[in-house]
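Researcher: I'd like a candidate sequence for this fold, 503 residues long. If you have to choose between options at a position, lean toward the conservative one.
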């Protein structure tokens, strides 16, 4: 996915219902169905082509009937499958059904056999679904997926793929795997995180002539460069290494030195003036032969060095000295990032669990960057629960530890202690490999060292991390086989381009 120039508002289902109520006097279903028909026409340009449309028992079905009517008018061979009764539909959907029938349309109770399809439309269930789809409708979901795969045709979901929780990205049993999703009024967080991206395909927004942000406050936002553009500043010609900050990284226990090196190289190439590594492996080499600019120290010496920001965790391990080092790091009044082993130590140490939140009270920024399993340890639950509501888990962590939290994964969540949250949409499966989290830590600490505020540093680093992976894939380096080290130079080039262009 291309990196976004502007962030987009995201709304949970409850907030969208409020918007719909406020706009009850407007023909929203007619606008939604027309927008869906326009996209369907663009996806299937052959006049008279056979289209299969599934209509559900609610307003999503009403959207489908409106779309079906428009597509019939455009001379497509429309086949609508509807297992319900028109009289039992909600008011607006019932009116859409009646008009479809009055204009010569007809409905089928089962899928025609022996037909190959040019396009399939999912209008079964929209937002707000909290339970598995069962019975005939569950069979329709499975059939839609199978037929789209068989015929290699687009599968267009209306508003949200049926079976997907639009708030969380959780699957509620059998779920439509769409190639395209047209979502109405505003974006939904579940389309962009957890299982959402795998089931939504290419997402289009039809605002239906509404300005959602004027009607109610957004639940969240996607990450775009507008959220950190003020900090994408060209460097002064009259600058020196001290102008660009000193970043420290503590980690690299025995057999895990590579993690600290990756973080250090990432921090250096993203612009930190000096990068110090405090390696726990006392037998480690004195220099990084691939990046001799990195300055290696004993951890004690590093903690006594004047730093602008510090990251703890990459390859840190759980040895005897690690908890004490982490407690000393927490005592420093500089921005502090905790990742990997530092998070596991935090989850297991009651003293650290008191020390970390206390940093917020004295104005020292703390950032936690867990993957789902690390987040589960910090919350005292299992990974399944974290993934079932990624935003909820991130917000809970942010409140508990009074820290800015980056919950990594598909659609990384960035959450603040004040309850704000964001969903990142850049990146691809190439990031699912060892060391990419260490590289992200290096990016974040580099921006912190250069004076970026914690939230903007996290947003920019996470977005850049994904954008670098996207550029690697575009250049043929992945997603399969993409390595963490390859991200670093890609990110440097991308970041310099952002600064030069003012994004």
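Model: Candidate sequence:
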């Amino acid at each position: 996915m291309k990196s976004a120039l502007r962030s987009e508002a995201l709304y949970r289902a409850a907030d969208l219902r409020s918007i719909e109520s406020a706009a009850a006097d407007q023909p929203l279903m007619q606008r939604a169905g027309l927008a869906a028909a326009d996209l369907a026409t663009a996806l299937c340009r052959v006049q008279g082509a056979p289209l299969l449309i599934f209509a559900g028992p609610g307003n999503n079905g009403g959207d489908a009937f409106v779309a079906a009517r428009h597509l019939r008018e455009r001379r497509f061979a429309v086949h609508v499958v509807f297992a319900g009764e028109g009289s039992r539909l909600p008011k607006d959907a019932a009116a859409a059904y009646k008009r479809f029938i009055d204009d010569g349309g007809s409905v089928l109770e089962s899928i025609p056999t022996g037909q190959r399809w040019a396009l399939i439309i999912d209008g079964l269930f929209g937002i707000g679904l909290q339970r598995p789809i069962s019975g005939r409708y569950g069979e329709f979901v499975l059939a839609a997926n199978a037929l789209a795969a068989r015929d290699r045709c687009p599968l267009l979901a209306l508003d949200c793929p049926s079976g997907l929780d639009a708030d969380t990205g959780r699957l509620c049993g059998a779920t439509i795997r769409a190639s395209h999703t047209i979502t109405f009024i505003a974006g939904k967080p579940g389309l962009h995180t957890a299982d959402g991206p795998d089931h939504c395909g290419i997402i289009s927004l039809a605002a239906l002539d509404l300005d959602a942000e004027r009607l109610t406050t957004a639940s969240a936002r996607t990450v775009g460069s507008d959220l950190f553009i003020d900090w994408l500043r060209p460097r002064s010609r009259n600058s020196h290494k001290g102008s660009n900050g000193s970043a420290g990284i503590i980690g690299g226990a025995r057999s895990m030195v590579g993690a600290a090196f990756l973080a250090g190289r990432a921090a250096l190439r993203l612009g930190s003036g000096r990068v110090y590594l405090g390696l726990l492996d006392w037998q480690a080499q004195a220099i990084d032969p691939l990046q001799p600019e990195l300055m290696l120290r004993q951890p004690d010496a590093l903690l006594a060095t004047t730093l602008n920001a510090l990251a703890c965790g990459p390859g840190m391990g759980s040895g005897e000295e690690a908890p004490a080092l982490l407690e000393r790091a927490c005592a420093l009044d500089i921005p502090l990032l905790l990742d990997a082993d530092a998070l596991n130590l935090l989850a297991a140490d009651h003293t650290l669990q008191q020390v970390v939140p206390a940093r917020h009270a004295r104005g020292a920024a703390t950032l936690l960057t867990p993957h789902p399993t690390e987040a589960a340890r910090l919350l005292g639950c299992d990974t399944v629960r974290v993934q079932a509501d990624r935003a909820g888990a991130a917000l809970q962590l942010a409140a508990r530890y009074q820290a800015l939290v980056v919950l990594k994964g598909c659609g990384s969540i960035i959450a603040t202690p004040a309850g704000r949250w964001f969903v990142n949409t850049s990146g691809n499966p190439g990031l699912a490999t060892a060391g990419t989290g260490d590289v992200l830590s290096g990016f974040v600490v580099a921006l912190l060292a250069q004076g970026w505020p914690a939230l903007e540093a996290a947003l920019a680093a996470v977005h850049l991390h994904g954008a670098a992976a996207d550029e690697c894939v575009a250049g043929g380096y992945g997603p399969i086989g993409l390595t963490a080290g390859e991200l670093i130079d890609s990110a440097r080039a991308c970041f310099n381009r952002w600064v030069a262009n003012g994004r």
